[in-house]
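Mods, move this if it's the wrong board.
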Amino acid sequence: MNVTELRGDGAIAQEYRWALPSVLLGDGRAGGRVRRSTRDWIVDILMFLFACGLTFLSLMDLEAQRQPEALLFVEQVTGALACAGVWLRRRWPVGFAVVTSLLSSYLDLVGGASVVALFTVAVHRPFKISGPITLLGLVTLAPYVALRPQTDEDRTWALALGLAFVLTVFAWGIVVRARRQLVWSLRQRADSAAEEAKRLERERIAREMHDVLAHRISMLSLHAGALEFRPDAPPGEIARAAGAIRTNAHLALQDLREVIGVLRHSASDGSGGEAGEGAVPDRPQPTLADLPALVEECRHAGLDVRLDLRADGAPEGLGRNLYRIVQEALTNARKHAPGAPVTVTVEGAPGKGLSVQVRNPLMARQGAVRHGARLPGAGAGLIGLTERAELAGGRLEHGPTPEGEFSVRAWLPWPAETERESGG
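Not the wrong board. Structure tokens:
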């Protein structure tokens, strides 16, 4: 099971959370084939040399004690096999630790491999497994101290040294395991943060595409519907409608090209540096000052709209959000209430916030005669506007009013500090 598979399901990832460092280090897991990385080979070689070094030191001590030849032969053979078994510690860590712990209850030369096995279990297994293994290692000190040392003083030193050694190795393994889990957790958080940033960027691009393209395409449909409804219109009106269709189609393609250019730039230049050859620069975003031009464009398209603008000097981000709200509201009015008069009221000041209300007669919205088929929609426009307003710290409401109108009302915060900054 690789990391990608674990990320695919949250429940599985949570279940294997504490085992992940072991998997990443090439742990064979239940006797499976071990795939060691370069780091794993270096660690295994160092562990093997460490076990051999402890075994050699113990062998020198045994020769100095002049142990029986038969016991010395058994010690040497068992010690050599235990050192060779260090290479199997990743495939059978628990079994190897149990066997070496039991053998070390009497044999000296198995001690090096037993230490390596205990450390491996402490690093690669949770406490519910490594704890009993460590307890077994402490229990095996009793028969060793009772059978091998020659004097009471030797037994006391052997017991104290054994307890300290076993507990130190276990504590060291626990610390290494905790550090690896911390690193893994930080990597997971970083990956999650990166994925969240990508998701938010995709949503932002989708929202911009909807806000811009829905407006352009609705203008195309409106002019095309007029041509379809009045094929006998004067040539001048047909020419103006055709020109408006061409202009809006060109602008829609330009907006789409810019969005695709941003996506390509993000895919080819993840560092966020300068765009490479062929990258499409971002077009200046609309602000509150562009709102009269938007209303005038809608008037040329045949929409009866009146603008009451009583705000000026709004920050760029604030003005852009309000522009998109008005743009989507006018697009919805053209879709659902063609021919109905629309009133746009914008007012605000620093410290009081910026508010907008777009309203049109409800009866016309529901029952007006439409030229051609009704414009299709995903029904997500007002939802997107609500999200946009909430992300900006404001609010948006929409629905019928007691006066028989459909109204879209939004309020966005306008901090008082911006007034002083712009004046300074």
